[in-house]
Amino acid sequence: MVQPQFLSVGEGERSRSIAVLAQPGKGPAVVWLGGFRSDMRATKAEALAGWAQAKGRHFIRFDYAGHGESGGDFAEWTLSDWLDDVLAVLVARVDGPAVLVGSSMGGWLALLATRRLREIAPERAPAGLVLIAPAVDFSEELMWAQMPEAIRRTILDDGVWLRPSEYSPEPTPITRALVEDGRNHLMFGQPIETGCPVHILQGMRDPDVPYGQALKLVEHLPHDPVVLTLIKDGDHRLSTPEDIGRLVAAVEGIAPAAV
């Protein structure tokens, strides 16, 4: 197994060490942004790494703070920290515009990073986005708004609720800090500008991010070229061989436009 390099991010109590795997190659960098409590060695990331190796493409993946091989306890971090991780990797490891491939929470982070870069470093603004079941505003719309009052009270009083996970034997801590910080990054309710082509892949049998969220995102991208691929029998993971083929095709479809 290839060992990652590490990138220092943050200062003081928020300092952490981010694990990064980078494959050199041609073309604009393709950068993987994983999902909530996922990691850079998950199925789709590994598949893209194999594609990049075969095609000689520049590919970068990493673990957010508290995820995978990066430092810190998961419950200590919030969306602001993970957004800073994304921006730090892009600044330190990418020259020029990249193609961001964001899965679930990574889709939200890709859009947030795009907005930030367009403001502070337009020369680094992404060349394209591929978003897989993008969980935009998930902490508010897909968590808080759906929670029974008893769970909300637990989060407010205790600071954390341990949510059973379908993807891990360990429960996922949902913290008050995560919910409150997420409100600083909500995107729905006003137009979203990316300035680049966007391809969204969304399963219609996704129990975690209903496909209506993808339709809502398309409506919020009025000025960008957007392709939405709905997979009728697709779940949240979208990791079958057919799904991986669609992902690779989406990346290849957007990446050449950036060369």
Order the strands across the largest sheet as they lie in space.
1-2-4-3-5-6-9-10
Task: Classify the beta-strand content into a percent band.
Answer: 15-25%
Oligomeric state as shown: single chain
Helix content: 25-40%
SSE pattern, N- to C-terminal:
EEEHEHEHEHHEEHEHEH
Walk me through what this model shows.
The structure is a single chain. The two termini are 31 Å apart. The model has no long low-confidence stretch (mean pLDDT 96). With 259 residues, this protein is α/β, with parallel strands linked by helices. The protein is built from 8 helices and 10 strands. The protein has an 8-stranded mixed β-sheet, sandwiched between helices.
Topology:
Elements: E1 5-9, E2 16-23, E3 26-33, H1 43-55, E4 57-62, H2 79-93, E5 99-103, H3 105-120, E6 128-132, H4 138-143, H5 149-158, E7 160-163, E8 172-175, H6 176-182, E9 198-203, H7 211-219, E10 226-231, H8 241-254
Parallel strand pairs: 3-4, 3-5, 5-6, 6-9, 9-10
Antiparallel strand pairs: 1-2, 2-4, 7-8
Structure characteristics:
259 residues; alpha/beta; 8-stranded mixed beta sheet; two-stranded antiparallel sheet; 8 helices; 35% helix; 22% strand
